[in-house]
Amino acid sequence: MEKYRLAIDVGGTKIAYGIFNEENEIIFRHRTATPLEIMPDEFTEKLYTEIDEVLEKSGIPLSELKGISVGMPSYVDYENGIVVTSGSIHNIKNYPAKAVLEKKYPGVRIVIDGDTNMAALAEHEFGAGRGFKHMVYCALSTGLGTGFIVNNDLFRGSYGGAGESGHMLITPGEGLECGCGNKGCFMSYACGSFIAKHAQLAIKNGEKSIMSDMVSDVSEITSVHVGEAYKKGDELAKRLMDQLIYYIALHIYNLFIAFNINCYVCGGGLLNMGDFFLEEIQKQVDEFNKQENQKIYIKAAELGGDNGIIGCAVALEK
After folding, report:
1. Domain that holds residue 232
2. Is residue 188 located within the same domain as residue 142?
3. Which of 136, 199, 210, 304 is least buried, going by the fewest C-beta atoms within 10 A?
4. How many domains does the chain have?
5. How far apart are CA 308 and CA 311, in angstroms?
6. DSSP character string of 127-181
7. CB of 199 within 8 A of CB of 187?
8. Same-domain pairing of 100 and 142
């Protein structure tokens, strides 16, 4: 009897595996590192080896597996199960993930989707988005991405790329160049990796900051250092934090104006800045919002680091 689901959340630092039973309980967990420079063939072998290992250690036979669902930190062609590009695992391009897994595990249902879409499913079903007919999950982390729930269902768009909203342009041709190939997208102003780059560039150009004393080399500065310096009153860190909050709020407000969706569930590492972070984003969004009697709700994700594998499990029920 097929009653178990294998969920795989591929992140920028780790790959999390979880086996779910019929009561949506995680009965087995496994975690490995994500080699960011791994080649496609090596990635295939890694998945095969680790899936087999998870099934063996959990004691779940393949015949009792309802499906395998994988969330990738990537732009995914959902219909064809192809990972088009990945911002984290750079060598994974036009990778036929669904076909690769179907070859190894024939007869098992395979679902491949982007990690923000999986997180959106999880938070809508079991987390901060419960009760909202429409919802946007905002991943505020190393990058900036979204997952859209419309009419209680995931919206992927014509090519499966809905949610790549961090690459909407606000200063075309100006600013730092993003991996999307453009300068001036939201992500180049408002995510963890780029706020660190702005800090590094400012210090190299002569601005004074206590962040210089936190690392042995300026290139080692991360968003964590920006957050720590901000709390200590550092002027550069304050300017960068204001930039981060402003552009995340603008990103959310523009989505609201485009789609009139009122619930934005935010998750990701940037929330570790502190409670003030979402509070300030809410204040800035409220300043932008001139629509009478149309409240925009900025909510913290409730499922933490499990929202990826939970979303993968939910996807197998759709």
Report:
1. 130-301
2. yes
3. 304
4. 2
5. 5
6. STTTT-SSEEEEEESSSEEEEEEETTEEE--SSS-TT-GGG-BSSTT-SPBPTTS
7. no
8. no
